[in-house]
Sequence to fold (281 residues):
Amino acid sequence: MSITRVLSAALLAVGLAAGPAAADSSPSPSASQDSGAPTQAGTSFRTAAEIGQGQQATASGSTGDYLYWSFPADAGQRPDVKATVKLPDAHAGQTWQLDVYDGLRRRQACQYGAQTRTAAQGAASVELACVMRTVRAWSEPWADDPLPGTYYIRLTVVDLTSADLGQPVSAEVKVDSKDIGGSAAVDGSLAEPLVPGIAVKSASGGGGSSSDDGSSSDGSSSSTKSAVLSSIEPDGGWSSGWWSDRWVWTGIGGVLAALAGIGGYALTRGSGRPGRVPPGV
Fold:
């Protein structure tokens, strides 16, 4: 009966511990689609329009333009980028392409999704998608793994006739992500996320106090803050993979291993010295 009570208590503890882990691994609520979403896109990496996950950004342009947006992605997230291009009423066949780059401006591969699609003649729109690999908290310097930081979306047409060049188009872009959880956790983390200007921001944060005219007390100008090219970050800040539900499951595994050892000892120790055997034998 004692073994039964011990095992019942262990199963109860496993259930209570697994509850918060399951809750942590679920995706966080998305931001409102219309809350501060940009209505225009940038024309380069440096001028990319910043959007948050869950926001739907819109932009108008011309065929042949390069349209850029940027968004933050943290460790354990698997971003899903979707874009819809609304084409003019009359046009020939066009091929559009959606590319995603990380904070080091390395082009990231898509796990699946129609990254390049051709719109038939007269088609009203074309839809593209790119589901990225899971963002890792840390990686080897030679690897091309996605890392926490800013990611860039580039949308452009790659094949069209000269008669269609310069025709007006409109685009919609939205980024969602799925929280993969402890299955994607790694040992290690970046000192800083790969966000443009993070080094300048960190250096200015540790300087002297600022005066009313915008200059700091140590003689340096606060104009260095203008070098920070990105101000977006995930809800709750950058975690850099310091916590995951893998810690919970590791603890559960240790408890179950200890209980298995206790149960095995209780089953194999026997009933002790038989009463018919005299002491000292």
User: Anything to note?
Assistant: The two ends are 32 Å apart (CA to CA). The first strand starts at residue 49 and ends at 50. Strands lie at 49-50, 56-62, 67-73, 77-86, 94-101, 110-112, 116-119, 125-132, 149-159, 168-179. The mean pLDDT is 77.
